Amino acid sequence: MSARGNDSCKAAPVSMTIRMQQLAQPKLSQLRYPDRLSLWEVSERALTAVASKRLCHLANPKAPVSAWQPDRPLPVPVSRGTQTAVASVRICQLAQPKKRSILEGSSYKSKPGPLTRSTSKAVAHIELLATPKRDHPNFESDRSVFWPVSRGARNYRASQRVIELSQPKERKALFEGYNPYAVSRGALSASPSHRIQELSLPLLRKCISK
Questions:
Q1: What is the secondary structure of 58-119 as a DSSP string?
Q2: Residues 178, 172 contacting (CB under 8 angstroms)
Q3: pLDDT tens, residue by residue, 149-193
Q4: Is this structure's pTM higher than 0.85?
Q5: Between the CA of residue 53 and those of 56, 58, 108, 122, what are the distances in Å?
């Protein structure tokens, strides 16, 4: 790689603005009152302090509500009556699984009914609805992907104004002195038309009469 290529790879120096330097400064509260360490010395007054009755009352845990019930244990004890229960004939009948002729995994399909003369031929109204709609006479289909280029377009020469407009605008970065809030001279000397002034007025129904 040439020396010129190495120079182009180097990053441009970045200069901080006054606002960025102000934001980079630490807060005064952090300098005056820094974060307390996880380990600190306990004062003698705190070691010999005696809690008041109010503090002792607030330190007691809250008692549960009178209607509160503890959670049931996971291994629920089964009563002796449940262990010695005998199912009736009706319960045994309801406990049997339903017998289905369709195999497992296959979706249920209804059986097609027998075709008759009335069902084999469509009604005239259904045939009318089944006919596709015609395109509008002014409808134009999508242009093909490939189309012939005219001779005038192939031999066309762009004017100096077109070449000037086709060039991209050169924009500078903020650290290079670009001001995004700069107003052009034409915008400063522009005067709004009568229609723009009329549209800028608030609606009469929203104006509060004093």
A1: HHSPPPPPTT--PPPPSSPPPPHHHHT----HHHHHHHSPPP-SSPTTPPP-PPPPPP-HHH
A2: yes
A3: 999 999 999 999 999 999 998 888 888 888 888 898 999 999 999
A4: no
A5: 5, 9, 75, 93
